[in-house]
Amino acid sequence: MRAIIAKRVDSGVPDTSEIRDLAEAAGYTVVSEITQSRTADPALQLGEGKAEELADEVAAADATTVIFDNRLGPYQTYNLGQLLPEGAEVIDRFTLILEIFGQRARTRKAQLQVELAELRYELPRAEAKTSLAKRDEHPGFMGLGEYDESRERDIKDQISRIKDELEQIEQTEEHRRERRRDSGFDLVALAGYTNAGKSTLLRQLADDLTVEENEDLHPDLDATAESQDKLFTTLGTTTRRAAIEPRDVLVTDTVGFISDLPHWLVESFKSTLDSVYRADLVLLVVDVSEPIDEIHEKLVTSHDTLYERNEAPIVTVLNKIDRVDDEELAEKREALSALAPNPVAVSAHEGTNVDALLERIDRELPDWEEERLLLPMTDDTMSVVSWLHDNANVEDVTYGDEDVVVSFEARPAVVSQARSRASELRTAAAESA
């Protein structure tokens, strides 16, 4: 698929690097680009002369697709389609992102989120088709499609159905998270912009990449965490067990943030971010090799997104230090100190400073509590002792003739559950006496 990139900015020099990366991630071959610095034209996005130049370039380059790095309204898409050679299509940045999401969606949840985003994107276009049809125009091209009186109603019905199914999936995932917490697991989430290196870092932190020993405990965990230099490699969530003795820690990699996303697209994927919002600790991963202005802007946007609903502490991870020298790293640390106090600098690719990050995770997670329980000797006592060995750090077990004393440290939730199980044992012993 041969594509031409088009971008308009109000002022300055248009930067097309990200939209090129997105186009290549979707499988397009970028053969040319047309840019313009001016205010947006309501009818064509570009000025009329530049739009005609774009049409000529499409014909000359034998391109099949024009990809705008601007958000196009339905009428702009329609008008641009009038100018282009027959068979060429116009898509905008958000249609392109949806294409990529659709290609990468593997789980039912991810597929539903893509479908929901596509429907939310299509809804105003369905309304535009209605308007054009009433004016006796026939928008049967350029992504608008033939006019169908019932389509708008169908879209709204489908949106409602998908939201209900996603809600059911989220309830199941929330129950799973709570079971893991009750079993003594700390939950850590990786957040940050796409291509910051989150998936590579997950592989460094994880100690269960083959997952064999974890299959019985967590059959829902994926078998691999992809690490590729591609945008949106991770669309759903991938969870791994991390090696932080004596804790049991599960680390989840999530879909990456990307700049300038419309509200409808963020809303469609909000449930994916629930694993971030409901974590005990968030690792905000940043590509430290990027220009300082870009890093600053991404940190601001990330914090805005996270602080909306997140209550967990946030640790900024400056990744890809193998791509910068010590002087540049020190300068960026200083410049970002207000947004990223006391960050951890690592190279996920080379494994540099990963041990220091694991130690930081241990310090930032909720403190464990020490407990000493007196358990009556009953038929069920050994199952409780065994459960404590699985879910806590057991320091000592002393067996008497009529009772068992267990000294251990664990997450507050596990201590609370252990006390409850000890109380049940004592009640059962008293009733049988």
UniProtKB/TrEMBL annotation:
Domain Hflx-type G: start-end pairs: 186-369
Keywords of the record: Coiled coil, Cytoplasm, GTP-binding, Magnesium, Metal-binding, Nucleotide-binding
GO molecular function terms listed in the Swiss-Prot or TrEMBL record: GTP binding; GTPase activity; metal ion binding; ribosome binding
Sites where the protein binds GTP: 192-199, 253-256, 319-322, 347-349
InterPro entries referenced in this protein's UniProt entry, alphabetically: G_HFLX_dom, GTP-bd, GTP-bd_M, GTPase_HflX, GTPase_HflX_N, GTPase_HflX_N_sf, HflX_C, P-loop_NTPase
Cofactor(s) named in the record: Mg(2+)
Protein name, as recorded: GTPase HflX
